[in-house]
Specification:
The structure holds three protein chains of three kinds.
Chain A lengths: L4 E8 L37 H4 L4 H16 L7 E5 L5 H13 L8 H5 L4 H10 L4 E5 L5 H14 L5 E8 L3 H9 L26 E8 L8 E11 L5 H11 L9 E4 L9 H7 L8 E3 L1 H4 L6 H14 L18 E8 L2 E10 L3
Parallel strand pairs in A: 2-3, 2-4, 7-8, 7-9
Antiparallel strand pairs in A: 1-5, 1-6, 4-5, 6-10, 9-10
Chain B lengths: L3 E9 L6 H10 L20 E2 L5 H8 L9 H16 L10 E6 L5 H7 L2 H4 L12 H12 L4 E5 L5 H14 L5 E8 L3 H9 L20 E2 L1 E8 L1 H6 L6 E10 L12 H14 L8 E3 L6 H15 L5 E3 L2 H4 L6 H15 L1 E2 L21 E2 L4 E8 L3 E8 L2
Chain C lengths: L1 H14 L25 H15 L9 H4 L3 H11 L3
The chains are: A alpha/beta, B alpha/beta, C mainly alpha.
């Protein structure tokens, strides 16, 4: 079995994660006075032709740009396969089409927003732009959409079915969907602002959006960020089952708890839901540098791709940005990082990465 | 391990609530295409659909689910088919091996969202369906319904979705990541898809006629089907009956246009070529092709060209079963997988209903009657928007 | 007909979201599809809806659109002859 390396990355998010080094311009979302935060946009015209842009919603544009950035970072222009994960898909266009159906009583509808609403639009558009005729899958499974894509890519590369795979997580906002999530108690109410994600006890999270893409190859290169050791997903777990699953996961990979240098957790400020992280923070991870990121990226189904971006950067730069440290612990060097994410008790994922030279 | 055993199947479609019912309809040539009844739409009289003539209440009753729940119609159909498959495979304790569920959908919970879109902000009553909009939620519904705790994910690549789910399942078993996977797809009819396809002007106002020179477009359908794939170890240990094998699979991207297929069927050609390679078969080993055959101008031309490129003068018998069920989008490859297995088990080729006149572009003529033939290998195509082309090969057990 | 031609140019730019193009950039006999303005089959479907919604002309076969949408000239001629709104 071949090894799998992260050789390039590109990230568009609610922070300035392009044309910067590593979150030096980061701003806490908790202080922004709104609970649905938009991504910072690149200059789309630099990457996409006007005739193509005119049909694209934000998610597709962000996906195309983030993937282009990842390819540039990896210094390659072609890949053998493209695999994307998205929790909600292209909801901007879905809403547009649905609203038109309802408002116009099914008359005078036009096809563009219907076409753009299919979940695999991002993957399809990237393939079209690159003329990549290879394997192309899109996963739509809540908070492990991205990890599903990662798992699939890893399987391909390990078995040498393909040598390079572009993997990404994308999600976008759309007006009505975000309003629905507010009334459903998923997103924090508008009147709740200025709180700390780590200390929040109220229900709901701050919603973000973005696209993070990775070039994975089964060849180590000079600029490799990390090796992906394993990815594991579970549909549902009780809080008291998580510790055992993590320890089993590490054992299967012949990695001991002591070898973990940092753990990246998906704290999102959603009251009791964060107990999934709090619990293990206070037990098995008590003496480890703990990192969180959703106070920067916001929560969305593929926010964990931002988490992987962050973990990869930590391994490359060998430092944890203060703004994302949970417990202000540091280590002299970072070789192995574990990531854990879940969403309301579902879609748990464990990802283990190691420094490429370790 | 080069091929993966199929040990169970379940299906619900416009031609029946079970594998047996579907099989009988295929044998008797009885179509499930009709006028739409469950959805109020202004297009009622200008389209035909493959509708499952059961209300949501009846489906929930069938599932024995009472009280408040967040099952969309898509989830209901999926749960029914998945449960059948698990039972058919003789599984008592679903968590006794490393088990996964890979589902596929394109509609997801849209059938609920479109009903309650403005209502959600006004009334509390139906807000539990807000969660149901995304595709992953229904996989959770199905997994919970089966009592499954393990690897669960969902693929959404338009009309090739279920083929991709089956493909991933096979690969996970071959690489020993899982011992058992329940794979398939589900999609319910919705105003969203009816209107969407109408704007593309590819819906027929009559019965769909795949590969016919005068074809007018597709009939949408709704359905769900799941297969149980199990490792050789389980098959031997539990002495399971193998229905057929997944022996080949391939996915490729046409990279031509967002919705249309290239004229020479490049994506389709590459997918079929890959599947044959994985199966270690040559084109002449294929005994029957269950075509994607949606009866749109574009697909049938593109697919036909690709078939010619692969099989040359030796194209085996082929047919599209969409005149029976309609085009069931993300479920299509799953129900057609069930039909491919039935074909293999019974050495029978199902007819391409409604066909009258050969397409002028080539000499391909589908089977129009039931045909008995010794079948060893069946190839099934499914092609979707975004240029997503998938092919599966099933082989006799 | 001149007013209609101007109207069509404005509508095409708006409906098809051609942000980078101004009315002055579109000549009456420019090819709209393929090499000219670069419109494609999805745009054709959008224009078919526009014909119905704004001019009351229903096209049942998308292939009919090919001839009608060749240029602003051909569009305005067709609409003038067939419009019901």
């Amino acid at each position: 079995m071949k090894k799998v390396y992260i050789n390039g990355l590109g990230c568009i998010s609610c922070q300035k994660t392009f044309d910067t080094d590593f979150l030096e311009e980061a701003v806490l979302l908790e202080n922004q006075n709104k609970n649905v935060v938009s991504a910072i946009e690149p200059v789309y015209k630099d990457y996409i032709s006007p005739s193509a842009i005119r049909r694209m919603a934000k998610g597709v544009k962000n996906g195309i740009v983030a993937s282009a950035m990842a390819l540039k970072d990896a210094t390659i222009s072609e890949v053998d396969a493209i695999i994307t994960g998205t929790g909600m898909g292209c909801i901007e266009d879905s809403e547009k089409f649905l609203k038109a159906i309802i408002d116009n009583n099914e008359e005078f509808l036009t096809p563009t927003s219907f076409i753009q609403s299919t979940h695999n639009t991002v993957g399809g558009q990237i393939a079209l732009g690159m003329q990549c005729k290879g394997y192309n899958f899109t996963y739509v499974n809540g908070a492990n959409s991205f990890e599903s894509a990662l798992l699939d890519a890893k399987l391909q590369l390990e078995n040498d079915e393909n040598a390079s795979v572009l993997v990404g997580g994308i999600d976008e906002h759309a007006h009505y969907t975000m309003e629905f999530y507010k009334v459903a108690g998923l997103i924090k109410n508008d009147d709740e602002t200025n709180f700390s994600v780590l200390k929040s006890t109220s229900e709901g999270y701050v919603s973000g959006e973005g696209a993070s893409f990775f070039v994975l190859e089964n060849e180590k290169k000079a600029n490799s960020y990390a090796e992906i050791l394993d990815v594991s997903i579970f549909n549902s777990l009780e809080i008291n089952q998580v510790e055992k699953e993590i320890l089993d996961f590490l054992q299967q990979n012949l990695v001991s708890l002591e070898e973990i240098d940092a753990v990246v957790l998906g704290y999102n400020g959603d009251g009791k839901q964060d107990d999934y992280y709090r619990n293990i923070s206070e037990t098995i991870f008590k003496n480890l540098p703990q990192v969180y990121y959703k106070h920067l990226s916001g929560e969305f189904f593929t926010a964990s791709s931002f988490g992987l971006w962050m973990a990869s950067k930590i391994l490359k730069t060998q430092m944890i940005p203060k703004i994302s440290s949970v417990n202000s612990m540091e280590k002299e060097s970072y070789k192995t990082i574990l990531l854990y994410n879940q969403y309301r008790g579902k879609d748990h994922s464990f990802t283990l990465i190691k420094h490429a030279d370790a | 391990m080069s091929k993966v055993a199929i040990t169970g199947m379940g299906i619900i479609s416009a031609i029946g609530d079970s594998v047996e019912e579907n099989f009988n309809a295929l044998l008797s040539g009885k179509t499930g295409i009709s006028v739409i009844e469950n959805i109020e739409t202004i297009h009622k009289d200008s389209i035909k659909v493959g509708e499952i003539k059961k209300s949501n209440e009846e489906l929930l009753q069938q599932l024995q689910i009472s009280g408040a729940n967040d099952f969309s119609r898509t989830a209901m159909l999926g749960a029914i088919a998945a449960k059948q498959a698990v039972k058919n495979a003789g599984i008592i304790n679903i968590n006794d091996y490393k088990t996964g569920l890979i589902s596929a959908t394109s509609v997801g919970g849209m059938d609920m969202t479109e009903r309650f879109f403005y209502d959600y902000l006004e009334n509390e009553e139906n807000r539990r369906y807000i969660n149901a909009n995304d595709g992953g939620n229904l996989s959770h519904n199905i997994a919970d319904y089966l009592g499954l705790q393990g690897t669960v994910t969902t693929i959404s690549t338009a009309c090739s979705s279920a083929a991709n789910a089956i493909m991933l399942g096979a690969r996970l078993i071959k690489s020993k990541k899982l011992d058992r996977v329940i794979v398939g797809g589900t999609d319910a009819l919705s105003k969203f898809t009816i209107n969407g396809f109408k704007t593309l002007m590819i819906l027929s106002d009559t019965y769909n006629t795949p590969f016919d020179n005068n074809r007018k477009g597709l009939n949408l359908g709704e359905a769900a089907a799941f297969l149980v794939l199990e490792s050789d170890e389980i098959v031997q240990k539990e002495n399971k009956k193998v229905l057929a094998y997944v022996s080949g699979y391939g996915n490729a991207n046409d990279a031509f246009h967002q919705t249309a297929s290239s004229e020479n069927g490049e994506g389709a050609f590459l997918a079929m070529e890959k599947a044959l390679k994985v199966a270690n078969l040559s084109p002449e080993n294929i005994d029957y092709i269950n075509a994607h055959g949606t009866a749109t101008q574009n697909n049938d031309l593109s697919e036909g060209r690709a078939i010619e490129r692969i099989f040359g003068k030796n194209t085996p018998e082929f047919s599209s079963t969409k005149p029976f069920t309609g085009h069931t989008l993300a479920a299509a490859a799953a129900i057609e997988a069930v039909y491919s297995v039935l074909a293999l088990q019974n050495n029978i080729i199902f007819p391409n209903l409604n066909f009258q006149e050969k397409m002028e572009e080539f000499d391909l003529v589908p089977e129009t009657k039931l045909k008995e033939k010794n079948l060893q290998h069946v190839l099934s195509n499914s092609f979707g928007f975004g240029g997503n082309c998938s092919t599966l090969i099933f082989s006799k057990s | 007909m001149e007013a209609l031609k101007l109207e069509l140019k404005e509508k095409i730019i708006k409906v098809l979201n051609l942000e980078d193009i101004a009315v002055e950039d579109v000549n009456d006999d420019d090819a709209l599809f393929g090499d000219g303005l670069g419109l494609d089959s999805i745009d054709a479907l959008e224009l078919i809806v526009m014909l119905d919604k704004d001019y009351g002309i229903k096209l049942l076969d998308p292939k009919e659109g090919k001839a009608i949408f060749q240029s602003i000239n051909s569009m305005s001629a067709y609409i003038t002859e067939h419009r019901t709104k």
